[in-house]
Amino acid sequence: MPLRIVQSKQNIRLKELRRALASPGRDRSVLAGGLVGIEGPNLLEEALRAGLHVACVFIAQGAEHLLEGLRLPDSADVLLVPRELLNSALATETPQPVAALVEPPKWGWEQLLGGTSEAASPLAQAAPLIVVLAGVQDPGNLGTILRSAEAFGATGLLSLPGTVSAWNPKAVRASAGSLFRLPLISASAEEGFARLRAAGVKILSTAVNGAEAADRIDLAGPVALVIGNEGNGVPEEVASQADQAVTIPCPGPVESLNAAVAASVLLYEASRQRAGNATQLHCGKL
Length: 286
Prior knowledge:
Blueprint: E1 4-5, H1 12-22, E2 36-39, H2 41-49, E3 54-60, E4 77-81, H3 83-87, E5 98-102, H4 109-114, H5 122-126, E6 129-134, H6 139-151, E7 156-159, H7 169-175, H8 178-181, E8 184-186, H9 189-198, E9 202-206, E10 212-213, E11 223-228, H10 236-239, E12 244-247, H11 259-285
Parallel strand pairs: 1-4, 3-4, 6-7, 6-11, 7-8, 9-11, 9-12, 10-12
Antiparallel strand pairs: 2-5, 3-5
Helix pairs in contact: 6-7, 6-11
C-alpha cells in the first residue's frame, strides 16, 4: 500500500477534508455526489464493510499500523501526514490519527419505502418502519436515532428541513456506522408525507399531551414516527399533517424525553409488536 507524504497545510486533499468536516450541512456538493469526511479507524472500517467508496485516507505519522488489515481499494489515495497537520484539519477535541474522504451512499424512495437495503431486517421489509426527523438539531441525538433505528429494524429515515446534517462529524460518530447502511432521504414535509401516504404508511407525530399511548397504537403495520426538535417538539405545521399523535406515558415527574430516547423507546415498541406478530403468524402455520 503506497503512502504519499504530505507536509503542506495547503494540500488540496487536506483542504477538502477540512471543508467536509467543518460544514457538511452547507456543502451542497454532498447532494451532488461529492465526498464527506469521517474520522477514526473504526468508522473507516465500517465504511469499507458497508461498501462505500473510499477516495482518500489520511494517516498520522507513526500510526501507519492502524491501516493494517484494512482492504483499501487500489484507487484510494493514502496520505501520510504529520500528526499536528492532520489534527488541524479534524473537528474533534481529541483528534484520531486516521481520517478519510468517502462517497456517501445514494438512497432512493424505493429503498426507504421498500426496505430493500441489505441492513434491513425481514420485519422491516414486511412493513416499512420509518423515522421522520423534524427539526432535530443536536447531531449526537441524530446519530443515536440512526443507531437505534438500525438496531430495531427500521426501514430508514426521512430528514425534513431544519434538521442537522447527518454527516455532521458528531452525528457520524454517534451513529457508529449505521449512517453508512440505513437509507436516509432529505425532502420537504409535503413531498415526504405524500410519498409515505401513497405507499400506505401511517404518519404518527410524537406529542406530550392529547395523544394515544404508543402501546395502544398498531405499530406493526407500515408507520412513520415523527421526532421533533429537542426544545420545541414537532413543528405545528408538520404535526398538523400527521394522521395521529403518539405519546410515551411517563409515570415519573418528567415533562418530556430527550429526542433520541423518545425515538429509541418508540422504535423498541414497534420492534416488540412486530416480533409478537411474527411469532403469532409462525405459530399459526404449525
